[in-house]
Amino acid sequence: MSEQVSDLLARKIPATFINSDLSVEEKQTRFSLLGRGAIKLLYLAPERFFVRSESERARLKQTRPSFIVVDEAHCVDQWGRDFRREYGRLSEVREKLGSPPVLAFTATAGREMQQRILKSLGIEDAEVFVRDVDRPNIALLRWRCAADQRAGEIASLLGIPQLQGQKAMVFVPSTNVGEELQAALRDLGLEVPLYHSKLGDAWERQELVKRFLGQSKPSVDQIICTNAFGMGLDVPNVRLVIHWQQSASVEDQLQEFGRAGRDGKPSVAVMFHNGSSLGRDVSRLRFMAEKAVEAAQVSALDLTQMLEQRYHQIDEVNELMRAQSCIRLAISEYFQGPKSTRRPSLSVRILNWAFGARTKARLQRDNQVESVASIKMRMLPA
Fold first, then answer.
1. How many domains does the chain contain in total?
2. pLDDT tens per residue, range 64-86
3. Which of 158, 206, 232, 244 is the most buried (most CB within 10 A)?
């Protein structure tokens, strides 16, 4: 939030945020500015509408915004039923705020997820605009590699001369895997910081973000991170994104490798996998899904459905990793449906039929002449 607000203020757009890191006095100052109409954009996490402070909830209710804008809207579906349940209660928030129009944005929601997001927000009749998710400047590389060899391969990739001075991100599925990778890279002579949601305090996490953005010294060009790091950051010159293993959903995979090449310049996304529908990569994600779902306070039936959905999402990514077909096309079709070719008009079909038939006949005659000439050449004495 703070990075986005800083960017807006630099553009002279009055914006602010309110979160748990602020003191009571600072919150009161910002609520006062909000009450005087001095703020155009207020950034909040959904949890703010359900805090214990009755006075804070009341002041938020009084804001009566012109719009509710849900950024990274895929989190409504991915987190709204277990990890951060307040994301699934935004329809309640909207009602408390006077039911203003809703704008929901995400770069990573497949067709099924889009419908679940709309239902959760209570806007099933909303108009949906979808653009092609393909990023042609990002080369996609699936790399079958055993887990015990990945640290060495990652070290080699991070040492490529062309990447020196450019940004690189290595996504890991958990803090434990990140710490193991960090130690292995250290043994290979690379010191790469690790970012995760439990790293130090808020100041320490923000300082590491600023170092990666080049806003604080010493700057950092390479980072190991969980998916807690990627969202909301706009770093233009990330040239390499590496996945230690597949993500838990196609949406996550796209969200993470989409950190690369945001300036439109050529970049690379490398995705390691073990080439199997079983193995530790998949079992790790299934275990994490089970732990996340167990934390949800829902009925046994809902629990089963949630777990089945997460298993299905994991299997979808696994199939993408192992498929022999084009992964770029598969991802595009996942979000937009099968590509349909536009049928030519009647006049174009008539021209194709008329001139196409003549061309075909001419090619057949030419081929016959070439064949005869070839036979004659072979028959000539040496």
1. 2
2. 899 999 998 888 887 777 668 88
3. 244
